[in-house]
């Protein structure tokens, strides 16, 4: 038996009463999850954006925060997200009793453990996405679990069938959720969750899904710890390559970075200005291929401008000696004859592939410099490449507030370049996927350009406030801390619904590594090393 729009008030009263055992058919889990029988009903008051509902006892275990439910009234189906569930207080139960008594007369006593919840209304499913409603659902309207057909209608545009890939399932169902690959590639994506909650697996499932598309895609993964390079993604992705970051030279692409790397920004104003002009001209000629990364060539530029700035005294020679000494001490890592063309191998390997650059063997500052070069060249050459950055706090840290004291390395080598790519890359088909534990630890400028968020379990107030501001969804604070491993609240342009929905990420056969070695191999190596040092 299926309950439709013409919901019998007498039956509603029976559902709410101790006589519910007379309706054994409603206890079927299959019927509940298929959306064939109601799990509750709308109570008063209600609006077009938020409404309250009560949950029937028999459906108590099948309704949870972050779930999509549908309301049926007057021949219209409306869909929304459960944002809060609470056990009824005696006062709340009395309010509901009084309300229904005013409509139907005396009704049986409600159970005191009846749950009440809040539903954030998204609108009418229109395929794909939703349309807003002009009138609120009526009180007493039955509430159902969203069906598989509802999800299909919401999440997929039939005219672009080959531009979607499956990312997971609606939590506690077998309903698949597919995301729009074009929105993933062209618009920014953020994946955030506490340690161990499935961030990297979610990013890896992106890579598997993108590689399954029939279309050509260009993806570059900056693998900070080596877990993508040393896992089994090569077996799961049809087009997969690994490159060691140690095979790439440190090649500055910005004159300001060159000055900071050499610590010449601490010179007195006149000498610093001479060096800045020299570095700017040198970098222009280097990028044009007219000069190489040679310290003596760079010093020729510096000496010319020192003479120009100190034409009236003999200080230019003094400063020249000091600067040349500094270059010999700090410039060996990049004044090595390398060329910007050394990065051409990156573009060749990324063409129509998933290219993972394993950066785990490089020092942090070298990683920052090389990623900065890649981001800068993608932008300058207008290359349609999607850049995935794991452990993003090392590359795009928030430089203001309390976290400015915990910045490591030299993120100035890449922060500005990655920020510019996040702002302008969509114009030519490039953008970013950012993976990190904490939202508040990454640059607000980059975060503001992310068009889709995958948010797992988060508990820090600053992180949840950032999500709340992004989604304009204050109820999200009650959902995020309760998400389990592999469960993510998804919101943004990659799904037609745009509003948050709870998804269990499909891990499948994905196995990620631990930077070339398993965790047991790392522990064994340490233990044996200590044992060798102990006297016999």
Q: Which percent band covers the strand fraction?
A: 15-25%
**What is the rounded Rg?**
29 Å
Let me know the largest β-sheet.
11 strands, mixed
Count of DSSP strands: 18
Task: Describe the protein in words.
The strands form 2 sheets. The chain has an 11-stranded mixed beta sheet. Strand 3 (68-73) and strand 4 (76-87) form a beta hairpin. Helix 9 crosses helix 10 (295-309). The longest helix has 19 residues, at 269-287. It has 536 residues and is of the alpha/beta class. The chain has helices at residues 9-15, 29-33, 90-104, 148-155, 181-186, 199-211, 233-236, 255-261, 269-287, 295-309, 315-330, 344-350, 364-381, 415-424, 444-447, 461-471, 519-533, and strands spanning 40-46, 50-55, 68-73, 76-87, 115-125, 130-131, 142-145, 164-170, 176-180, 188-192, 219-223, 240-244, 354-358, 386-389, 431-436, 450-455, 487-492, 498-505.
Task: Describe the structure in brief.
With 536 residues, the chain is of the alpha/beta class. It contains 17 helices and 18 strands.
Pick out its properties.
18 strands, elongated, alpha/beta, 536 residues, six-stranded antiparallel beta barrel
